[in-house]
Amino acid sequence: MLLPALLSLLTLTVHSVDLPHLPLVPYPQHVSLLSSSSALIDPLTFTFSTTSSSVLLKEVFDRYHKYLKLHDFVQKLNVTLPNLEVVIKDPDEELLLMTSENYTLTIQTNSAILQADTVFGAMRGLETFSQLVNTNNYSLPTLHIEDYPRYKFRGFMLDTSRHYLSVGVLKQLIRAASWSKLNVFHWHIVDDPSFPYCSVVYPDLCRKGAFSPHHVYSQSDVLEIILFSYKHGVIVLPELDTPGHTLSWGAALPGFLTHCPGHGNIGAPYGPVDPTNEAVYPVLKELFTEITNVFPGEFVHLGGDEVHYPCWKSNPNITAWMAAHNMTGNYDQLENYYETRLLNIVNSLNKNYIVWEEVFYHHVDITPQTIVHAWKPNWKTIFQDATAAGFRCILSAGWYISRIAYGEDWQNFYLVEPRSFNDTATPEQKALVLGGTVCMWGEHVDNSNILSRFWPRASAPAERLWAPEYLTDVKFMEPRIEAHRCRMVRRGYPAEPTLSRGHCHVEYTWATHH
Ligand SMILES: *[C@@H]1O[C@H](CO)[C@@H](O)[C@H](O)[C@H]1NC(C)=O
Ligand SMILES: *[C@@H]1O[C@H](CO)[C@@H](O)[C@H](O)[C@H]1NC(C)=O
Ligand SMILES: *[C@@H]1O[C@H](CO)[C@@H](O)[C@H](O)[C@H]1NC(C)=O
Ligand SMILES: *[C@@H]1O[C@H](CO)[C@@H](O)[C@H](O)[C@H]1NC(C)=O
Ligand SMILES: *[C@@H]1O[C@H](CO)[C@@H](O)[C@H](O)[C@H]1NC(C)=O
Fold it and tell me: How far apart are CA 350 and CA 369, in angstroms?
């Protein structure tokens, strides 16, 4: 019995010991070194070339030129490699969840070529190329890389309700996400504390529900974020969480929330949406119609987590309504009634949706295309049940990077494996696991500290979601995540230390970047 276990352990160890030690995060699927000689570039004159006429690709080239020029030393170089040739099969491909991000990169001493199916795949490859440049002497190893993501859904969630994040900081987070090859920005845009999204159909929602007129996202801010994300290969997934987590909607929409003095979950006299109020549904229809028009992605996130039943329970009108509808004291029935009506609305808008696990767990009648988003410690049971029922799943349990403790914690995030929910699950079930999302809830972060708290800790799950499954050796990750953080520091980000001691060759200086 011991032997197979020992053997597989040996295979694992051999794998990471054998891999070239390259400063890449995430680590590619396949790397082979070509020779011991390296290519030398001059970052000031280096060019990217392509026969593709993609305007987006030209912008991406500009971005990577800037990174190449962030050099430590100016020295006389004997340049061997003047150019990277980029070949794209389908430059007009849209950015969708299933869009190919595959690329191959071949670097020889005096020629280099990057091939990708799409511009978005080329972005991933250009990031890898830029990470390979040794900034001391501008050498790159000669190698061949074949790379593609193991999971198609590699998300990061930001909560802009508990604290406001400026458009500038959101963009910085999105840009750094592309450096770790994340591809979905799950925007938890509103929640109980504030409603910063400025809706066209219900402008009072942000007028009355935001912290102040300065703590809002106008329609042009939202479009700016969507466009910026697109240019970094990132899909924006908006979440309008209902029926719980909606306190901030109340001021603009009288009667929308359940009145429950003394029974609200966060001290307010109101709780979840009042599902018994018919006036609620046309509002939801208008709002979700707007959201599905503003955000071009295939998905919307409908929330559905943590509905506070004591509020509903305390309201005599709700009790009477439930009795009249034969819902005898089981509040799951009321929640399902609400969700079913909401889903009927969203189904008519031709978008797929993602729901927090509670919606699945409470047996709401969701469409087969629904993605179930697990966040609680019992996620393995949810994944087993949901995939057995044919639903696609994404994971956030284990990836709440808003939780901090003294000491190094990226290793814990690193070792979470979304497909490890059940050894006897079928390959079809495992294939339904699309990936996961790193979550930064907003209780204790705002513009002042989110970049440091997010990076590089989020890069650990980012590698899990992209890199080969066997890569579970934290010792192999350690120098790479530290190199990645120093690279972010070099690119102007206050990315925090990962290890308990060490230094970056170029340290972060607040003054240099402001
Ligand atoms: C560059 O090449 C010249 C001529 O081959 C050689 O003398 C010089 O040492 C080289 N410089 C460097 C920095 O390698
Ligand atoms: C990307 O590469 C993977 C692994 O080789 C392959 O399974 C997948 O079909 C490729 N995708 C495309 C669009 O070629
Ligand atoms: C560049 O520097 C690295 C160490 O930082 C070294 O391993 C490598 O051999 C150097 N390459 C060249 C071409 O000098
Ligand atoms: C119950 O409904 C009545 C009639 O609409 C209303 O006046 C009353 O305030 C409601 N009670 C609660 C607790 O919401
Ligand atoms: C409630 O149940 C009774 C008895 O089974 C039935 O006559 C009535 O139509 C039901 N009402 C609703 C709203 O489903």
Answer: 11
**What domains appear along the chain, each with residue ranges and CATH number?**
30-147 (3.30.379.10), 153-490 (3.20.20.80)
Q: Which two tokens stand for residue 35?
A: 């020779």
Confidence class for position 35, pLDDT limits 50, 70, 90:
very high
Best of 30, 88, 96, 100 to mutate for ligand 2, by most ligand atoms within 8 A of CB? Answer: 100
117: CA distance to ligand 2 center in Å? Answer: 10
Exposure b/e, 218-240, CB count within 10 A at least 16 = b: eeebbeebbebbbbbbbbbbbbb
What tens digit of pLDDT does each residue of 183-199 get?
A: 999 999 999 999 999 99
The total of other beta-carbon atoms located within 10 Å of residue 356's CB is 23
- Our CA dihedral for 221, 226, 230, 233, rounded to 10 degrees, sits at 110
pLDDT tens-place string over residues 362-411: 888 899 999 999 999 999 999 999 999 999 999 999 999 999 989 999 99
Atom of ligand 2 minimally distant from the CA of 100: 13
